[in-house]
Amino acid sequence: ETTANQIAAGEVVERPASVVKELLENSLDAGASIISVEVEQGGLRRITVRDNGCGMDEEDAHLALMRHATSKIREPADLSRITTLGFRGEALPSIAAVSKMTLKTRTAAADRGIFLEVEGGKVIGKGPAAMAPGTIVTVENLFYNTPARKKYMKSPGTEGGVVGDYIFRLALARPEVAIRFTHNRRQVFTSPGSGNLLDVIASYYGAELARQMVPVEDSPGDWLEIKGFVARPTLHRSNRRQITVLINGRYVYSPLVSTAVCEAYHTLLPAGRYPVAIISLTIIPELVDVNVHPAKLEVRLAREREILEAVSRAVRKSLIASRL
Ligand code: ADP
Ligand code: MG
């Protein structure tokens, strides 16, 4: 069991940002409306994620630390209609296997919370916790027992930057949730939870850039809806990571959709430059396979060519509408 968790950890937990991603996704799945992420030394020393979500009772808290004990899929058929961000039930046990983790949690019905202290995957302490309803997960000394992995970590500054990138993308996926990120006690990013994508964009890129974004909105059929914002061609960047793709509320890595966005700009961008863009696709779940990789960053799409063409067309339409 411990070995299996460490192997799974190798796939799910690559660096501090992957821990933050999994914990943040759990908070979102728990229905939280306010989440705070505090990170020290790029997350290598400590990561704390607090939420005001549904919390867990004692039994569920213990279960949460066991492999494949997800509460999110009840039957096999559910796999084709995944609406939660998590579903594999491997994140918490994987993270716990390679760190010192403290899980504090309380449901709204309970009059107090409980804490579980876990080291290298083993519960070494538990007791009552005075806290508001919700969950607080603290992960310390990541990779303390897997020195080979620890060696590959970049500087705290770089790791903290990657953490910030992930948080931004998840905040874009859920603009209605207030998300705060502090690194070494300095506030880096605050998404206000207004539900407005532009407010999230402004909190990351600044108000000036947010003002220069052009809305994208198109629905080629009732199976596909395209929404988002793209920057005027003058606001280009030097790497394509500034193109964020969301599919059904999930931040994904999709070079194909990114390329479709770039194609819409055609000759408007200088060589080697990329637009700032947020493209959010809502596709009927039957056409989306998110179960490609344990970290769930990649998706497989049916009717891919149609989708890519629709994205290009929608972005082009917006750029033309903004008279460029
Ligand atoms: P998954 O998200 O794939 O189900 P995880 O290992 O990430 O698996 O979490 C295991 C279980 O622990 C979840 O299914 C959920 O029931 C519970 N859980 C984890 N984090 C939270 C949280 N922040 N609030 C409430 N429940 C949580
Ligand atoms: Mg999860």
Automatic annotation (TrEMBL):
One biological process GO term for this chain? mismatch repair
Query: GO terms for molecular function, please?
Result: ATP binding; ATP hydrolysis activity; ATP-dependent DNA damage sensor activity; mismatched DNA binding
Q: Which residues form a coiled coil?
A: none
Q: Any keyword Mitochondrion?
A: no
Organism superkingdom: Bacteria
> According to its record, what are the GO cellular component terms?
mismatch repair complex
- What keywords would UniProt list here? DNA damage, DNA repair
DNA mismatch repair protein S5 domain residues are 201-320
What is its biological role? This protein is involved in the repair of mismatches in DNA. It is required for dam-dependent methyl-directed DNA mismatch repair. May act as a 'molecular matchmaker', a protein that promotes the formation of a stable complex between two or more DNA-binding proteins in an ATP-dependent manner without itself being part of a final effector complex.
Its family remark reads: Belongs to the DNA mismatch repair MutL/HexB family.
- The name of this protein is DNA mismatch repair protein MutL
